[in-house]
Amino acid sequence: MKEKITSSQNKRVKQWRALTSKKGRKQTQSYLLEGWHLVQEALKADQPITAILGTADQLAAHAAVLPSDVDCFELTDSIAKTIGDANTPQGIFATMPLPHAAPVDPQTAQGGWLFLDQVQDPGNIGTMVRTADAAGLTGVVFGRGSASRYLPKVLRSMQGSQFHVQLVEADLHDWIQAFTARHLPVYGTNLDPQAQDYRNVDPVPLAAGAVVMGNEGNGMAPDLQRLTTRNLYIPIKGQAESLNVAVAAGIVMFRLFG
Amino acid sequence: MKEKITSSQNKRVKQWRALTSKKGRKQTQSYLLEGWHLVQEALKADQPITAILGTADQLAAHAAVLPSDVDCFELTDSIAKTIGDANTPQGIFATMPLPHAAPVDPQTAQGGWLFLDQVQDPGNIGTMVRTADAAGLTGVVFGRGSASRYLPKVLRSMQGSQFHVQLVEADLHDWIQAFTARHLPVYGTNLDPQAQDYRNVDPVPLAAGAVVMGNEGNGMAPDLQRLTTRNLYIPIKGQAESLNVAVAAGIVMFRLFG
Predict the structure, then answer these.
(1) How high is the pLDDT of residue A210?
(2) pLDDT value, residue A2
(3) Taking CA atoms, what residue in B is nearest to A236?
(4) Which ranges carry the RNA 2-O ribose methyltransferase substrate binding domain (chains A, B) (predicted)?
């Protein structure tokens, strides 16, 4: 099942390269995992990998654990360097179909959730998904205006947590309103010291509820803040203007759910 | 005091470009601040800026607040793009002397401290300095093997917190032993669930003590762990293998000092 690819003009190589763009992902309905850590996480989580691509060295190094029933392509070192976007490419990749899971219904969603309102930085987004996983949350909702979860840097920062928690793209108005109607607490976050000090809020009962994190520069949208159960503030003691959004998310999630 | 520079072969331009390397910083005993946010933070903190460099547009935009007693260089757009290392350069920079502060003595250091043991990722380091500032800590000690605090990405992630907290390069053995000898608590961090659950530790009395964060892949060095008052663990509830080191640092610092 292993095919050697030596021409950088090969049609498949062009398709793989295109997976760093939204257009390329849409055309082939697939996305790219870069580096052994992510490929291994996908294998462990029994994900529907469609192909494994790697240099001769990488494929040999991992031969014992690569599945025999998945198409495998051996790339020259120079072709491998043109795929993906890591600064220090590891020479091994996998392709995965874009998921077509049934949309999650906020009327019935269980457990803890992180809602992302227009978060922009791919590293921050990936780190928050990883942290949500570590804090035992069920899933993450990407509201309008948040960066795509298939960006290579988001995928790298998630470190495989996309296989452990549910990722949903949806309107946060709908999700916040559905949760509060179900009497599940939804905590917004706010840079305003007038908001509630997060240290004075108890852990979420039965770990069922949500935390909303906002845009790096502007915070959470005011119309969403008006829909939450309460908006929380992390007191800043020093002279820093603010916390990094992923650090703030970690502090609040581990306080409420950890 | 404003000089226009139009040749990319200008000697000063070459020196500024070299400030992204350790060698260049050493030769001129100075380092570079990139982007208006950092330049503004340095001005606010009354730092000894030696020169301001910017495109005509950027210098005009900030003319009202630029100091008149500092050398100012107007760069062409194309030259400005070759200085610094931001993906999206903002066209404004300042140069600063490398600090020659008297070394801080661990026998007399006051307040809360973050100790970094071989932390590698510049974004993580910068974010931890910013978080230490927000949590009201006095300073950060860069132990052997941690990345330089003058890397452009470290400087960007610190967001000016380097002007608010003390940054020290030193041997962590010395600092940990000095603190514990003074009966100041030093909390190591550990991925081992046998370590102490961080939630069962009270905030540090009088906010005087230290937290140690270790290398991204290997954690804190075992010989340092043996010197601490106690080593803390953040329980992972989901399937993530670990937390990002900057997120973990935020959770522990805000628990102990926040």
Answers:
(1) 98
(2) 82
(3) B134
(4) 32-102
Mark which residues 46-65 of A lie under 8 Å from B by CB.
none
Q: How far is B123 from chain A (nearest CA, A)?
A: 10
Question: Do the chains contact at A123 and B127, CB–CB below 8 Å?
Answer: no
Q: What is the pLDDT of residue B237?
A: 93
Q: Which two tokens stand for residue A181?
A: 């109607």
Which residue bears the tokens 């994900």? A47
Give the per-residue pLDDT at B101.
65
B248 close to A (CB below 8 A): yes
Please, what's the b/e burial string for B22-36 (b: 16 or more CB within 10 A of its CB; e: otherwise)? eebbeebebbbbbbb
List of chain B residues with pLDDT < 70 = 1, 101-102
* Sole residue written with tokens 């990998």: A49
Q: Does B40 touch chain A (CB under 8 A)?
A: no
CB-CB under 8 Å, B240 with A159? yes
Rounded CA separation A169/A165 (Å):
13
Beta bridge partners of A48: none
Residues 6+ away with beta carbon under 8 Å from A179: A106, A109, A113, A185, A186, A209, A210
The phi and psi torsions of A65 (rounded to 5 degrees) equal -110, 0
Task: Inform me whether the C-beta atom of residue B86 falls under 8 Å from chain A C-beta atoms.
Answer: no
- Domains along the sequence of chain A with CATH: 2-97 (3.30.1330.30), 112-256 (3.40.1280.10)
In the stretch 193-232 of chain B, residues with CB closer than 8 A to chain A read 199
Q: Does B136 touch chain A (CB under 8 A)?
A: yes
ipTM of the complex in this document: 0.87
Burial class of residue A207, CB neighbours in 10 A (0-12, 13-18, 19+):
middle
Note whether B194 and B97 are within 8 A (CB). no
A35 Ramachandran zone, left/alpha/beta (phi>0; psi -120 to 50): left
Closest-CA distance of chain A to residue B224, Å: 25
Task: Report residue A231's pLDDT band, with 50, 70 and 90 as the boundaries.
Answer: very high
Residue range A86-127, pLDDT digits in tens: 777 789 999 999 877 668 999 999 999 999 999 999 999 999
